[in-house]
Specification:
Elements: E1 5-10, H1 18-31, E2 35-39, H2 44-48, E3 51-54, H3 81-93, E4 99-103, H4 105-115, E5 122-126, H5 142-163, E6 165-171, H6 178-187, E7 191-193, H7 201-213, E8 219-224, H8 230-239, E9 245-250, H9 262-281, E10 287-292, E11 295-300, H10 301-304, H11 313-322, E12 325-326
Helix pairs in contact: 1-9, 3-4, 5-6, 6-11
The protein binds 6-O-phosphono-beta-D-fructofuranose.
Length: 329
């Protein structure tokens, strides 16, 4: 069936690159003569019928903007089966021939649940600064968050060096250390703590003492927020074991904002266009689009739920080899 009109929404935590992806969906659809309804506030907008019709003009000048023009929400009510059913019914009443969901792992699970009760075909585009969605090497937003954190740490280094202090810098990433590992490698951190490796304060203290014996009088420890107690707990424990002035800087939500990097603008444009192409080609199950080793891939979204996210083991090993220690080694 030829598409006449589709819906697009952004769901879950925001990140840089969402607007670039919406723009790509709208422009690809426009070129094919297909209309687009923007659904505001993620899945919640389906239930509330909160619709913003989008055309080529309405997405001009947004590729460089962080956040999301469509707004977003974590519609946690979708974990309840009855809300899934009512949302699926509302989706089928919207008058769209397909839905493109730009979201993270929670939105991915919700898309699968909805597709079990709705006749509207769904294509899922991965975005998250945590880069913890299986089936793609990179999700939209990750590269921008890495760059934001690295830029912040470059600045923290100046003050760390001037005062000869140790800084425990906490980065986001939820339960995974992929963001922290990439940030640590790119910022030349002396130590990185990630949830995947047990945290051993003793080992970190010895590493810092070794650094100091070699004449290094300031250090950066990148701590993933998923480590128990985060940077604050680590700093507290370290102060008992090392004679240095240990300070904490939690980067927090700044990692989710700001203009997307060129990498994210390109990835978002590619995945948005690919999602439209997949939808217009016709699908018989919910589909996820992604990139593996730079190549476009599609998965049955139900199977993608069970694919482990990229472990970035080589990146983690290289980080260890070049500059620092992993907590626990
Ligand atoms: O998933 C993205 C993320 O920024 C995580 O890194 C962080 O743990 C979480 O969202 C914060 O969520 P919220 O926006 O609900 O506070």
């Amino acid at each position: 069936m030829a598409l006449k009109q589709i819906g697009v929404l952004t769901s879950g935590g925001d990140c840089p690159g969402l607007n670039a992806c919406v723009r790509a969906v709208v422009r690809s659809a426009g070129a094919a003569g297909v209309g687009v309804l923007g659904i505001r506030y993620g899945y919640r907008g389906i239930v509330d019928n909160d619709i913003l019709p989008l055309d080529d003009r309405s997405v001009s000048g947004i590729i460089q903007l962080g956040g999301t023009k469509l707004r977003t929400s974590r519609f946690l009510e979708l974990r309840q089966p009855e809300v899934v059913q009512s949302t699926a019914a509302a989706l089928d009443r919207l008058g769209v021939d397909g839905l493109i969901v730009i979201g993270g792992d929670g939105s991915q699970r919700a898309a699968v649940a909805l597709s079990e009760h709705s006749r509207t075909p769904i294509v899922f585009v991965p975005k998250t600064i945590d880069n913890d969605v299986g089936g793609t090497d990179y999700a939209i937003g990750f590269d921008s968050a890495v760059n934001t954190a690295v830029e912040a740490i470059d600045k923290i280094r100046d003050t760390a060096l001037s005062h000869e202090r140790v800084f425990a810098v906490e980065v986001m990433g939820r339960g995974r250390g992929i963001l922290a590992s990439a940030v640590a490698l790119a910022s030349g951190a002396e130590v990185v703590c990630i949830p995947e490796v047990p945290l051993e304060v003793e080992a970190i203290a010895s590493a810092l003492l070794r650094c100091s014996k070699k004449g290094k009088c300031s250090s950066i420890i990148v701590v993933a927020e998923g480590c128990p107690g985060g940077a604050n707990k680590l700093a507290e424990d370290l102060r008992q074991k090392v004679p240095f002035d240990v300070r904490v800087s939690v980067l927090g939500y700044m990692q989710r904002g700001g203009p997307p990097t060129a990498f994210d603008r390109i990835l978002a444009s590619e995945l948005g266009a690919q999602a439209f192409d997949v939808l217009s080609g016709g699908i018989s199950c919910p589909v996820m689009v992604g990139r593996i080793r730079g190549e476009p891939v599609t998965h049955d979204l139900r199977e993608a739920l069970h694919i482990e996210p990229h472990s970035f083991k080589e990146l983690r090993d290289l980080c260890h080899r070049l500059s620092g220690v992993w907590a626990g080694t």
